[in-house]
Amino acid sequence: MGGFTMIELIMVIVILGILAAVAVPKFTNLSSNARTAALAGVAGGISSGNSTNVSVCAVDPTLTTAGGKCVAVDNCSDGGDLLQGGLPAGYTITAAAVASGVTSAACVLTDTTSSATTTFSITGTP
Q1: CB under 8 Å to 2, separation ≥6 — which residues?
Q2: Tens digits of per-residue pLDDT, 78-118?
């Protein structure tokens, strides 16, 4: 007679239950971590785009009208214009004035779905 006894089957079910109880909390927080990483990625993209934009505008500020390569940055909310396709849906930038030139301002990027925030700095165009 081959097969498993009732005790062996119950022990396997108990062990699987314990493993599931330990593993489920690890996976429930992944979406929160993903949102935080996405928020940091958007803020990093704006900061990188701002650095490139300031450099391009410093070399040839006339590009604002000829070709649209230089984006005028007067406040934090202009940071979304520095991203290809604009600011993604579900994010907002708290506006703060930025003086032209090398003056930078601290801006707050908010994920509207989770209310998570992060800060980044943005420099006004020369």
Answers
A1: none
A2: 888 888 888 999 999 987 767 665 578 888 999 998 888 99
**CA quadruple 79, 46, 86, 38: dihedral positive or negative?**
negative
Angle between helical axes of 6-28 and 30-59 (0-180°, round to 10): 30
CA distance 59 to 126: 10
d(CA 67, CA 46): 20
Number of domains the chain is built from? 1
User: pTM here?
Assistant: 0.72
Residue with the two structure tokens 């958007």: 42
Could you tell me the residue range of the domain that residue 61 belongs to? 6-123
CB atoms within 10 A of CB 14: 10
On whether residue 1 sits in a domain, the answer given is no
